Every structure is written in structure tokens, then in C-alpha cells.
Predict the 3D structure of the following.
Amino acid sequence: MSNTIGTNFRVTTFGESHGPAIGAIVDGCPAGVSLSVADIQPQLDRRRPGQSTLTTSRAERDQVRILSGVSAGLTMGSPIALVIDNTDCRSEDYEAIQKVPRPSHADFTYCLKYGHTAASGAGRASARETVARVAAGAVAEKFLAVKHNVQIVAWVSAVGGLETPDLTAKTLTRKEVDATQVRCPHEDSARAFAGLIEAVKKEGDSVGGIITCVCRNVPPGWGEPVFGKLNALLAHAMLTIPAAKGFEVGSGFAGARQRGSEQNDLFVLKGGRLGTRTNRSGGIQGGISNGEPLIFRVAFKPASSIAKEQETADYEGRPVKLRIPGRHDPCVLPRAVAIVEAMGALVLADAARQNEECRM
């Protein structure tokens, strides 16, 4: 089903951008995991709109409520229902574009597929839907941390044509990532990124970039052969995020320009176990985790909803000049960091539960 991800650790999201609420059902989390709102809210706060001048000014509090699946602070093994109310919808901002599909937005394809578009706010196509993923991802993260000590940290590594140095060898923390409003732990790059985003915002435009994610302490053996490869599942999950356009693991596309002798990760004894001297594979070999840090990157296009006037056409094909009103992100990356972490957690939690099934 298109609204569900996972097999053994399953998540279904529901709700629209301008509906009463957004939510998720988490099914497959084992019993006995300590869980409370305090485990979920911090990630929602990181994704929340209105955090800084670099993001949309939509002022949602994004307070999560746990409706089921938890008792006395412990998961029960039954479905966990999470809900976040929408409190700052401005549907009137979308009245002017009901007859004009926004360029590069889902308006046009949704209309072709379903025969109509959302009355306002793009409905399920809106990035607002990702608040449910982040809530569910926080549950997955708690399970991974408690049962396997897995740690997931993502950061903004490129904006437009600007990039940070490679930081994947550092043991970065979310506190370090959150020290700048652009969520880049490299101070010089963070200043350059913020300056570019501010300049683009003043022009009524938007800019894209790249988020890098490292997952540490992932045990070897997660992932399935052929169609259940861990890298393939991660790619699928990341490319479901609105505005995501590319995915690479380890050396990614750069590795395509190398020879095998340059690309291969040679084996060495590390801490009493066999490991690799380098990590160009990004922690995955043959689609299965090898015990090294899992490293991947997600490329995001510039947000399609911009204030700058564009010459386009309405649904009847008549030329129009479109200026999109409303509150939009000039760059989605600072808020997307938490989304990338959430989707990574959901894939790894599912892989962990699948591996439990394999060993029973």
C-alpha cells in the first residue's frame, strides 16, 4: 500500500496538510520498549516549521499525542497510534492556484491520476505529511537505541553549489548539528549556506542541496539478498521524501570514476573482529550490513513553491503568470535532516525485526 512502509516494523501515515490532523500507526514494535512523548517530541521540534528565517513561517506547535500501544511507559506490542494536530492552516493562500498547476509540483500528476487536486495545501503531497514519519521514526529510533545501540545522525552537507568537507569520519552528535540554524556542523560552511539561503529567499526563489547521514553500531547481517537489499530499501525510503531527487551510499557516484583497486575496502582485524580499512561501501556489502558505519547521502531539489513570478499555463493550457502566495521554505534542508533520520530509522528497525525472524 502506498501509505505504508515496512514489513515487520510497519508504519502507515494518514492526514492531509490542511486537514484536522496528521498521524501514524506503528505496528511491529516489540513489547517492553520504554517510550513516552519525551522520546518523540524532540525530533518533531527539529522538523517543525517556523524555527528560523531560513524556513517557512507556518507556526505549527507539532505536539504529539500517543493514543494507543503504550502503557505505564512501555510499549505493549500492539499498534502505536500517534497524532499531531494541524493548528495554523491558511487555506485562503491557495485559492488563486486552484486552476493553475504549480510548476514541478504534484498538483498536475495528482489531477491526472485521481481526477482532482487537494482543495488546499497540496494534501498528501505536501511536506506537511512528513511530520507523521518523524513521529514514527522516533519510535523506531528508540527501539534501535534500546535493543541495538544504533545511533543515527544526519546533517546538511551541501546547499546549492556549496559543500562541506567530508565529515563522515567524525563522531558527530545532533547537538553539534543543531548548533547552527542551517543544521551544518562545519561553522564556515554553515555561514556560507545560511547566507546563500537568505539571498535566495529575498529573490522569492528556492535552493536545494544534500543531506549526509551516518548510522553507527548497525550490526552485521541486516538486509536481505536480491530484492531486499538494505541499500535498496534505504533508497526507496529516502526517495519517498518530498523534493528528494537522488540517493547514494558509500562512495556513490564518485566510486563509478574509480578502479576496483581504488574502490575496494580491504579487510583488517579491528578490535578483535574482521572489518574494513576503508568504508567506500558505506557499511553495506551485497545488500547486507557489514558492521561498519552506514553512510548515505540524499539530494534534494529546490522547493517548487516559490514567490517569484513564473510564466506557465493553467489546466486549460492558457498562458498565465503565476506568483504563488503562502508560506514556503526557501530551502527544505534544515528541516529535512530529521526526516532523513526518521526514514533511516524506519528501514533499520524493519531490517532488525526481519533479522530476528531469520534467526528464530
Q: What stands out?
A: DSSP finds nine helices and 18 strands in the chain.
